[in-house]
Amino acid sequence: MDFVGSHILSVNQFDRSDIEHIFRVADEMRPYANRARITHVLDGAILSNMFFEPSTRTRVSFGCAFNLLGGEVRETTEVKASSLAKGESLYDTARVLSGYSDVIVMRHPEAGSVAEFAKASRVPVINAGDGPNEHPSQALLDLYTIRKEMNSRGRSIDDLRIALVGDLKYGRAVHSLCKLLGLFDNVHYQLISPPGLEAPENITKELSRRGHHVDEHHELEQGIDHVDILYVTRTQEERFPDQEEADRYRGLFRVNQDIYTKNCEPNTVIMHPLPRDSRAQAQELDDDLMQNPNLAIFRQTDNGVLIRMALFALVLDVAGEVHNHAKPVTWYTAKRFGEGA
Ligand code: CP
């Protein structure tokens, strides 16, 4: 695809060469993300970071990514802090904001809302999560992490065996990741969910049609043996019709070190899009996994900065210019990026 000036709304937009392109640019961003160098390639550019649902890592890492490229960030969080609360349409909001910014990142609780917003925007719009539908930048950073972890084991993404665990119905990160992995060859999906929270049929059917192996389970331990990646997710309680129904699913699937040792390979990579629900009744990833070197959850969040820098560089057409506007960092920088879990 031609990234310049494009909206990034769905992983359906990408083919394998697009993904390789994004990952090559993301690799180039590492010295800037880990503060070895700074660049001013987006000096004067403005990002509108619009988050109409709670977020920590997506909102902050998109903002940091833009700052790390030298641009400025304007944020709106919560509908009640915007004129959407006064009945303004997404169309009008988009038209107004695109007059003030060079690129817009948006999260919204309704499926399809970011695409609707993008129709009225005169600048590129990046989907940071639209309800239960998609979360393209999360899937890209997850895939980038999977590729890195598999490469370190002498493997590629082709022939991957992945277990996806938890709320596969409402989990937008899972939807986007499943589709993105579907671009590769011979992927084995073990989809493990409680009854009622299975992955959407349109996604599983399409993966099968492409020749991948898709097995669905309702028991955790049935599906997680011999997998390369164990991708655990949170129950998306905010998507349920009522809290009582959400409560019924809390804590059904919990992965801890005992379960991992009993069922997984010694080097199975443990991933989670985060946030994980650490309340005692939930604990989908137990704290006793923190010492497990295959726990990659914070390597994922670190990689999110690289991917989001790459997306900005590509849609704003500065990917080839980043190093020409760079200099070394002079202040103290702690070594923390890409280290540990
Ligand atoms: N993974 C993810 O989307 O996290 P946040 O909701 O904190 O942005």
How is this fold's topology laid out?
Layout lengths: L15 H13 L1 H4 L3 E3 L6 E6 L5 H12 L3 E6 L12 H9 L4 E6 L4 H7 L5 E6 L5 H16 L9 E5 L6 H10 L6 E5 L8 H9 L3 E5 L2 H4 L5 E4 L10 H7 L7 H7 L5 E3 L25 H19 L10 E3 L13
Parallel strand pairs: 2-3, 2-4, 4-5, 6-7, 6-9, 7-8, 9-10
Antiparallel strand pairs: 1-11
Phosphoric acid mono(formamide)ester binds next to α3.
Describe the structure.
- It is built from twelve helices and eleven strands.
- It is α/β, with parallel strands linked by helices and 341 residues long.
- The chain folds into two domains: 11-134 and 303-337, 3-Layer(aba) Sandwich (Rossmann fold), CATH 3.40.50.1370; 136-298, Aspartate/ornithine carbamoyltransferase (Rossmann fold).
- The strands form three sheets. It has a five-stranded parallel sheet.
- Helix 4 (90-98) packs across helix 5 and helix 6 (136-151) crosses helix 7 (172-181).
- The radius of gyration is 20 Å and the shape is globular.
- Residues 55-59, 129, 138, 273-275 line the site of phosphoric acid mono(formamide)ester (CP).
